[in-house]
Protein: Permease for cytosine/purines uracil thiamine allantoin
Amino acid sequence: MSEPVTAQTDSTLINADLAPTTKENATWKSWDLFCLWMTSAHSLGSYGFAVGMLALGLTGWQTVLALFVGVLMLWGGSNLIGVAGQKVGVPFPVFARATFGIFGANIPALLRGLVAVFWYGIQTYLAALAVIALIVRIWPSTEAWTHGGFLGQSPLGWAVFMSLWVVQLMILSYGMDIVRRVSDFAGPVVWIGMFALALWMLDKADWSIDWNARAGSPLSGPSTVAAFVAVAFLMVAFMAGPLVNYADFARLSPSTRAIKRGNALGIPLNETAFVLISLVISLCSLKVFGDSSKDPVSLVSEIDSDVIVVIAALLFAIATVGINVVLNFVSPSYDISNVAPKYISFRMGGIITAVLSIVVLPWKVWGSEAAVVYFLGGVGALMGPVFGILVVDYYLIRRQGTRIADLYSTRPDGTYYFVRGVNPAAVAALAISGVVAVVIALVPDSQYVTALSWPIGATLGAVLVLVLTPVLGRGSRAPSPEAVAAER
Structure:
């Protein structure tokens, strides 16, 4: 990792937050990355996604196996992006400049930022639900404040949502080090609540569940295969946004070894464990209440002990706030800052993100089952091509070579200036593969087809940028690793 060459640096392309990582601030070790992935999995949204996959018609054990296959694919992708991000040492929107051009990088950055804004609002809303359940349980008279209101939110809903909104904004204002500390705390703490809830539900279910149970009607052989593939790829699509901008965190790690170790602990180990315990709770709920889709907050409200309800609600709220700050606030803060680094800092980007998260009315998005399914497909449609293009460009076209100084330079002869700051090969590949992926994602009444938007988008984007680069003149300007090493 190295600082940009001052003589070549354009002040309109850099600020303190977008500058390359130094040895002093490379503080995210394996444990921190492990907790990062833990935090990403431990939320009401992740639970809802996991148990929602039962609705596609697979049995309990088939759903677990399909999600595990998706977890393995996510693990492989995280190593590709994580190693690249650590070696280059810059946040995602700056990393993308080497592929899309110093100005063209704003296209994938803002696409990722848009996705994160929606998820930020959704996760804040889900955390608010946990807090509301806690308040009503302690003060039953407040139940009257959960009715009425405006724009789809009750008076109590607005009060709690905005309170959490302010708390998260305050956390981000202290920078990335406090984000690391929040992740280290929020990731592990939710296991307490999940284990306790699982034990309570197993007791209610007489300590037996049917792993052959399913939420929908039995499937034929071909339909089972289609559903299995859909669930696996939807697992990747669910994490497609954090996967693409993983460089925001990987760049702060001291070594690629730390990256790989943190990824191994946090994804195949922890993600699988969370999926397993989520489906145990869901299958217990199916047996006890006849409904596999009840979320943890609803299940906790069935417990007789007020003390347990309060503790559980607090744990779920903390976990949801944790994932929000780490995965859905950091990314758009960097992405929006990248549009005008001279005028928009990381903190200002966070404020803009927070405001937009209210404007999109996230409770209306989450309140529609169809919207959730197609939104996940839409995430894959947007992020799949970006992932494929970034990986192929870094590993095959640039052969892992990056001139750090040129990421911050507007010189016409700069490596990443291309055509007026835009790489036509990468942008064309994104446009074509993005359109195809979106069309697939929006196929009506076909969840199995929608689930293929991420792999098709990623594959098509990768192939197109590989084919279009020599045609549009990119290859001769890609520095070799040897040249980059000599520069450093």
Summary: The CA atoms of residues 396 and 466 lie 8 Å apart.
